[in-house]
Amino acid sequence: MPSEPKILAFDTSAAHCAAAVLCGDEIRANRLEEMARGQADRLMDLLEEVLSEAGISWQDLDAIGVGIGPGNFTGIRISVAAARGLALGLNIPAVGVDGFDARAADGILAAVPAPRDQVYINAGAPRLTTRQEAEDIARGAGQTLHIEASPKDIATQIAQHTRARFHDDPAAPAPLYIKPADAAPSRDVPPALIDG
């Protein structure tokens, strides 16, 4: 294991594209760009930019860290697929870090916003709940509920968790979906195929 591991971490699980480079204990680059759409188009360019800012190349990396959710289904798939592909291509491990770990702090119950005034929390197990119930759970645990979609240091936190875990031969990152997708399959009858 290198004495100063170089880790690239990123996240697109909410309305943002975030990336950071950690070298040893030093964050050499950290970016968070707010965006409602376009993470798939922006991610690879952003990763190139933070690597350049940090003064390292893809071949210098020891591990990839990625936010696995909960959050936006499409955004989670973008990051997880990118991390798995990069790890395979670079022959380095990829570590999935959930949004609760990436937002954790003493005295708070970290929550990720969800549609319809709900939040994702991890109080024993990850789940979707109402904001009011989450506030009650936090109060009962002597904590403050902290709901944040795009913390400015989310990629930094993912990188730090990755540094602590990557040498343990982690499984490939997988999306953390707490609820089923809101989208439903089309009810249109497919056209008949004609052999001919």
Q: What do we call the CATH topology of the domain at 6-103 and 150-164? A: Nucleotidyltransferase, domain 5
**Could you say what the CATH architecture of the domain at 6-103 and 150-164 is?**
2-Layer Sandwich
> What is the ordering of alpha helices and beta strands?
EEEHEHEHEEEHEH
Strand order of the largest sheet: 3-2-1-4-5
Which CATH top level class of the domain at 6-103 and 150-164 fits?
Answer: Alpha Beta
Q: What is the CA–CA distance across the termini? A: 61 Å
Average pLDDT: 93
Identify the overall geometry.
Answer: globular
Radius of gyration: 18 Å
Task: Report the CATH superfamily of the domain at 6-103 and 150-164.
Answer: ATPase, nucleotide binding domain
Assess the beta-strand content as a share of residues.
Answer: 25-35%
For the secondary structure, the number of strands is 9
Q: Number of helical segments?
A: 5
Q: Main sheet, how many strands, which sense, barrel?
A: 5 strands, mixed
Q: Report the uncertain regions.
A: none
Structural class by SSE content: alpha/beta
